[in-house]
Amino acid sequence: MADSITSTIISNIKDGAFKTYLESFLPKALGFFWCVILALLVWFIGAKIIKAINKVATKALKRRNAEIGAIQFINGLIKALGYLVIGVIILNLFGITTTSVAAAVASILVTAGLALQGSLSNFAGGVLILVLHPFKVGDYIREDTKGNEGTVKEISIFYTKLCTIDNKIVVVPNGNLANTSLVNYTYQDKRAIDTVVGISYKDDIRTAKDIIREVATNIPTRIQDDKIKVFVSKLNDSSVDIGIRVYVDMDTYWDTYWQFLEDVKYALDEKGITIPYNQLDVTINNNDIAAT
Questions:
Q1: How confident is the model at residue 69 (pLDDT cuts 50, 70, 90)?
Q2: How far is CA 31 from the centre of its chain?
Q3: What are the C-alpha distances in Å from 113 to residues 87, 106, 108, 117, 125?
Q4: Helices then strands (H, E): number in the chain?
Q5: C-beta neighbour count of 73 within 10 angstroms
Q6: What's the rounded Cα separation, in Å, for the pair 156 and 170?
Q7: How far does Cα 182 stand from its chain's mean position?
Q8: How far apart are CA 250 and CA 189, in angstroms?
Q9: Residues 6+ apart with CB under 8 A from 257
Q10: What are 51-68's pLDDT values in tens digits?
Q11: Structural domains in the chain?
Q12: CA geometry: angle at 100 spanning 99 and 102, to 5°?
């Protein structure tokens, strides 16, 4: 088709340098134009196919009760491989053979091996996360490398996204999460409110412990099978520290924790128990002052 169009255009032009130029240039230009059109069609159709494959894969994984993180990871992998295939097909349309592409990719991988080392480590880390399940989407974690913490929102091929308490998104490389220690606060279905309340040395320890224990007993989401522990944690310079450990439902931990601290403060105030602040007593000897 491109040849017939070229012949029609050239036949209507008088002989000369311009016609000679068109005879050599126009077929290539029209050929390139059709390659661009075909490339756009391949890209459009390929994107639709990738989307359909991801949709089918997602449904199949959900039927097998796969974790959301695993679904996100596999979807990302399908998308990456799919677009790689589309890229190879488009290059073939422009006359670049698969062998040439493979040789070029191999050359790039060799020369850029060090640069890609981090990305490959992140990919391997993502695989380990999905296989070993140290956390899943929806868990609240804290990693020890940078101290990042938040709720896991997405596990992609190279990175994991955390949503912090103040609604910021932190992107952490999978390699870091796979190669460092981390705390998964929601791995268990319960979590201990483990805190300390200081009282004055003048107040009765037993009374304070009874008040705190009563507040802990009345927590609606308390795990009934676990014993409440109220104990003297430390004798500080300005206070006697009363330690409290009570297990509550994980899903409502933070709301319960904040409400518990408020209730303890009100309960201690009602009974006249003082929560002291740091203070320093200074004794001045008048005899020493008079002597100077």
A1: confident
A2: 47
A3: 21, 10, 8, 6, 18
A4: 9, 8
A5: 23
A6: 13
A7: 13
A8: 5
A9: 193, 195, 248
A10: 998 888 888 878 777 777
A11: 2-66+81-101 (no CATH), 117-184 (2.30.30.60), 190-270 (3.30.70.100)
A12: 65
Strands 140-143 and 182-184: antiparallel
Residue pair 152/160 in contact (Cβ under 8 Å)? The answer is: yes
**Among 238, 229, 228, which Cα is nearest to 203's?**
238
Cα separation values, 67 from 76, 179, 193, 251, Å: 14, 22, 29, 19
CA atoms of 111 and 126, how far apart (whole Å): 24
Q: Tokens standing for 100? A: 């040439």
Neighbours of 55 (CB within 10 A): 11
Bridge partners of 285, per DSSP, are none
| Structure-token match 């990919």, residue found | 123
Average pLDDT, the chain: 82
At residue 61, what are phi and psi to the nearest 5 degrees?
-70, -35
Q: How far apart are alpha carbons 125 and 182 in whole angstroms?
A: 14
Residue type, 58: T
Residue type, 268: L
* Tokens 């390139």 sit on residue: 32
pLDDT class for 48, splitting at 50, 70, 90? very high
Q: Which residue has the tokens 């589309």?
A: 86
pLDDT band at residue 178 under the 50/70/90 scheme: confident
Average pLDDT for 158-182: 91
Say how far apart CA 120 and CA 129 lie, in whole Å. 14
Structural contact between residues 242 and 230, judged by C-beta atoms closer than 8 angstroms = yes
